[in-house]
Model the fold of this input.
Amino acid sequence: MGYQFDFGFLLGSVDALLKGLKVTIELALAANIMGLVLGFFLCLMVMSRWSIIRWPAQLFIEFFRCTPALLQIVWFFYCIPMMVNVFIDPVLMGILALGLNLTAFNAEAYRAGVQAVPKEHLDACVALGLRPWQRTIFVVLPQALRSALPVLMTNGIGTLQQSALVAIVAVADLMYVAKSLATQEYRPLETYSVVALIYFALSLPVSRIANLIERRQDAAVLR
Amino acid sequence: MRPCYVEENNMSFDLSVVASYWLVLLKGLALTLALTSGCAVLGSLLGFVISLLRMSPSRLVKTLTTLYVEFFRGTPLLIQLFWVFFCFPVVFRLPVPPYLSVIISLTLYMAAITCETFRGALKSISGEQHDACIALGLTPQVKIVHVIFPQALLRAIPPLLSNIISLFKESALISSVGVADLMYVGQSISNATAQPLEFLTTVGIIYFAVAFPMTRLVGVVESRFLRRFAY
Done:
């Protein structure tokens, strides 16, 4: 006798799944915005002339890149409230942990982009009398963003997947809903399969677009 | 004995308590390292085979392998772990012990990310070399074994090392299915002693102490070793 599949019960839990999906998307989007903005500043810090700025930034990056994301999330949830003695909303805390993690990875991605900006452009900025902040925002950032875009998008999808980890500290995201559904209904097979497909459906289009952009950039370099 | 109602004591960062648990933490680290290295080897081999299959002329093989890679890279590892842990016993109708299920899912994950690495390395061999092989009249077999593979495999070393570092970090997830790795040990001690700050920080430092030298190694391999042999 084979296993009797039954996806029917999931129809009754569409609401719960959608709610979880909403939290997951919120987490991923907010963390991505944070990572994109802070990542650029962190990258500027790492490339700074003064070592007093460079070192802490480098340490931040290495620490977030060399420890498991799960550990970072658990650490944030247990230790931050203890250290500063305030209770922060779990979703906000999840965004903070995921966002800082992504910031470290994005800073590295931006760095390659910033280094790829031709030196002539910087000279031109001096010749045109642009201020340093104008140079950074109007000349360096757009070019760095453009060449780093595929990696930034890949990192963004990575964060969508890492966001499943907040389920372990009981934030009610898609993964958490899946976990509770699977135990409630004794049907882990159907639940996890469907939820895996949802994650897959979210990340596939973005990864396709990232691939496309990368290929176009490669083609542009060859031309 | 410390009275637990003294509020300020909560904040004290007392690393000396960690010392009495070092053996357990070490055991956890040993398991993490053993699983990571085992799955890294298995996953790299599987990934290599899949990267070759992905370039096969058969459309079916190509689609299936691409789907496999996209699926494992496009879903959270946590859900893959749960899926293998809960669903393999049901689907294949035989008991799968936790260790085995963890090894299976980490290997499949590693194979998926490694496949991309090998594919990138194989693609990085320039078109001129393929032309040169034809001009020299080399058979496809000779071309692949003696010209393409040696270069591609050398170039794949740095990203492969990065993949192993990712696998090492991701392996912390196996704690969620109850395998007593470093993360699991750290979390249980911090729950039992109610001192998460000390223990979680220590665990973080241990992970860092292993992963950081490895990231440096990637840089060294890239700058010294490869420059001499591959380019």
